[in-house]
Design brief:
The complex is a heterodimer of chains A (270) and B (302). Chain A contains eleven helices and no strands. Chain A has 270 residues and is mostly helical. The chains are: A mainly alpha (270), B mainly alpha (302). At the A-B interface, α1, α3, α4, α5 and α6 of A face α1, α2, α4, α5 and α6 of B.
Chain lengths: 270, 302
């Protein structure tokens, strides 16, 4: 495209600045995690790796991490099953109310987390608790699965729309029954979109705090909750910083992988 | 032939193929089977919960026993509307959400344009898209913490401004606005980039050939075509900022946003009905916003 030299330079300059804006706070966290000072001070005057060591061996962090992993895996599993079922129904069938359902799927993520949180909280308090389902790990999983469905749905529906139904029809014409067609044709087609959806759903669940706060029972603490609870405590600063740095590093690989596998607009929350 | 890899016996195979044939002949049944579980979840669990929240907004809590009284009353809403503090916080929250949206649009437009139209190599474009969306997953609290380090007293911003004889704004509303704009920025960049990516270069060349200067081309050709993408991004930046209470706790100092009221009534005060009533405020604002932007076709861009 023809752009004037000046326009090109201005745009390049702005792009560099915005990218610097995006990355500099994260770099500061990484650098500060090696800051040997016990109370926050910038710039660091001497360096240490003790905070990383303390973060890795901290019992509270480990327990919270394990809780987060359990919640993430369970919510991702539910989202995979339900999300791909709706994706098939929307992409492969014509039916009344299809538009409404696509909207309903998006709603848990389009509305602020606090709304989903309060809604589930009031449902648990007034309806579920009287029948014996109290705040606990299960309620957190239910909350997370509700907003993870849309992630899987979007990834799978994009793939199904792109490939169309002709492959399945060809398989049936050649004599395969529905189950064989699913196993040998449909599943291989959607497999990588399922992996991408699962990775992104897990990442979203792993990072969530608002819905968690309103659905978790006493004694349940996910990693984001641990960070939030310790963030405002003055003497926990360096360990929180090291955990944050650890998370920045740990997140790069799975998200990179998910973006390579996904074929929608890579990245967004959807 | 058909089921070459099936290890089940012939009887099981016959049963499965009979079921398969039956399902094939009844598409409605197949559709029903696909939809039953997810719809139960979304309608009973999710819409059901929203309904319970809506109903409980009209209940009250007995001041003496702390028990929820399930009798219809509009007192929560009266209190929300007539108390000046709530009105101030509501206006502040909407202002912050709108400012965040504008900041994100202003930052995202040139960056997305740069990636989509200035960068030539496909590889570099893909790498830049990944570079932009990667921090999205770095963790919400991690980013909140990062901005605390930036804005805190004697933090990075103070340190950077000291040679100029200035100091940063410290923790407060400006810090909250910037932190929120930072966190939701990728949600704005990605839909705008997607819209620009679909926009043929030839349109821009045609405008230039016909003598339009760059700014005019942008205003009359590019902007109308990518507007749905901008609006799609704004739904997230606006709605997510509107419901936030965590970031304001981390970098907002003593400031409060509307969702803080909701949170405080659940946690400290234990007044679920009042929290439910307060939570309806972001719902109403977001739904109004969705209704307004529906006409731009932005909802199909989500």
């Amino acid at each position: 495209m023809t752009l004037s030299r000046r326009a090109r330079m201005v745009l390049t300059g702005i792009a560099v600045l915005v990218l610097a804006f995006i990355y500099s706070p994260l770099l500061v966290v990484l650098v500060n995690s090696f800051n040997s000072s016990k109370v926050f001070s910038w710039p660091p005057r001497s360096w240490t790796t003790q905070w990383w060591h303390k973060a890795v061996t901290n019992v509270g962090v480990r327990d919270a991490l394990w809780t987060s992993v359990k919640v993430g895996l369970a919510a991702t599993f539910v989202a995979l099953v339900l999300g791909s079922m709706i994706a098939f129904a929307v992409a492969r069938y014509q039916w009344f109310g299809r538009g409404v359902i696509s909207f309903l799927v998006i709603l848990p993520i389009a509305l602020p987390g606090i709304v989903t949180g309060i809604a589930l909280n009031s449902a648990i308090t007034t309806v579920l608790r009287p029948v014996g389902i109290n705040f606990g790990l299960l309620t957190v999983i239910i909350g997370h699965a509700t907003f993870c469905i849309v992630i899987v749905f979007n990834n799978v529906v994009a793939r199904l729309r792109r490939t169309g139904g002709s492959l399945e029809e060809a398989s049936m014409d050649l004599g395969a029954d529905s189950f064989t067609t699913f196993r040998r044709v449909t599943f291989p087609v959607i497999r990588s979109s399922l992996v991408a959806g699962a990775l992104l759903a897990f990442a979203l669940s792993f990072d969530e705090i608002v819905v968690t706060t309103f659905t978790a029972g006493p004694g349940i603490q996910t990693l984001p909750q641990w960070i939030f609870n310790n963030l405002l405590r003055p003497n926990q600063g360096p360990i929180v910083n090291a955990v944050a740095a650890l998370l920045i590093v740990a997140f790069i690989a799975p998200v990179y992988l998910a973006q390579r596998l996904s074929d929608g607009r890579s990245g967004g929350r959807l | 032939m058909t089921s070459t890899t099936t290890t089940a016996g012939p009887a099981a195979r016959r049963r499965s193929s009979r079921l398969s044939a039956y399902l094939h002949a009844h598409p409605t049944l197949r559709l029903g089977a696909l939809l039953s579980a997810p719809l139960t979840w979304l309608i009973v669990l999710y819409l059901g919960s929203l309904t319970v929240m809506f109903i409980s907004a009209f209940w009250t809590v007995n001041a003496f026993t702390n028990e929820i009284e399930k009798r219809f009353s509009t007192s929560n809403f009266q209190q929300l509307i007539t108390t000046p503090v709530y009105r101030t916080v509501a206006i502040r929250t909407v202002t912050i959400a709108a400012t965040v949206t504008v900041i994100d649009a202003v930052l995202a437009l040139p960056l997305a344009f740069f990636i989509a139209k200035v960068v030539h190599s496909r590889r570099a474009r893909a790498a830049l898209v990944v570079a932009v969306s990667m921090p999205l997953w770095a963790g919400y609290l991690v980013k909140g913490y990062a901005w605390r380090v930036m804005f805190d007293h004697n933090g990075v911003i103070d340190w950077a401004l000291r040679p100029l004889g200035l100091s940063g704004p410290g923790l407060g509303i400006p810090a909250t606005t910037i932190a929120l704009a930072y966190i939701w920025l990728p949600f704005m960049i990605l839909p705008i980039y997607a819209a620009l990516d679909r926009l043929p270069d030839s349109l821009l060349d045609a405008a230039a050939d016909l003598g339009a200067p760059a700014w005019r081309t942008f205003r009359t050709v590019v902007m109308p075509l990518i507007w749905p993408g901008v609006v799609a991004g704004s739904i997230f930046t606006f709605s997510l900022s509107l419901g936030d209470y965590i970031m304001v706790r981390i970098v907002g100092g003593k400031a409060q946003m509307f969702a803080s009221i909701v949170y405080d009534n659940i946690g400290v005060a234990g007044n679920l009905p009042f929290a439910a009533a307060a939570a309806l405020f972001p719902v109403i604002v977001v739904v109004l916003y969705l209704v307004v932007v529906r006409r731009t076709g932005a909802l199909d861009n989500l």
